[in-house]
Input
Amino acid sequence: MPARDFILANTKLLPVPLVPEIKLHLAEKSLLIWQRTEEELKASNIPPPYWAFAWAGGQALARYILDHANLVAGRHVLDLGSGSGLAAIAAAKAGAAHVHAAEIDAFAIVAITLNAAANGVAVMTSERDGLADAQTPAEVLLVGDLFYERALAERTLAYCEQARARQALVLVGDPQRSYFPRGRFAPLAEYAVPVTRELEDAEIKRTAVWRLA
Output
């Protein structure tokens, strides 16, 4: 099934709980879309549908960006591991001059395109591994919920440090997942983020936005 058809058939355009200014194509039943991805798209070797959810870190990051639009207005922004495109869309709505959403999942790329259109903003997408491109000239780097696996967390931190060395502003939304290196980041704001217990360990996830120290 084409990605666009699968997304539209298995999601609903809904406001994001912490960021109701933004609507995304979200799965109403988490386990169902996970099952359908495995059953209907198995032959295509498609990753899990992370793009179908507004994860806690992304929600916090999007809220912070909209409330502090001056941090991204007129600047070039890269949203790394963009998922649904939530943080990228927030940056575009906040007045960023150019927003690039990097994702390795082809279905996520289609979801980002659909979500950006639904919110009336322009977001460029790339299916390349953003972590492999150390020369991306972003002035602001956004990272949401990428510290959940050790190897990914190590690559993400190294990329963040490279971006910071180029004088980029590095903002991370994360509820201190398993491999989040808290000692390298300073908290900027904290939010009580509504999430689904099917995917998280609570219905409200305390989540912070962090700046690379």
Q: What stands out?
A: The mean pLDDT is 92.
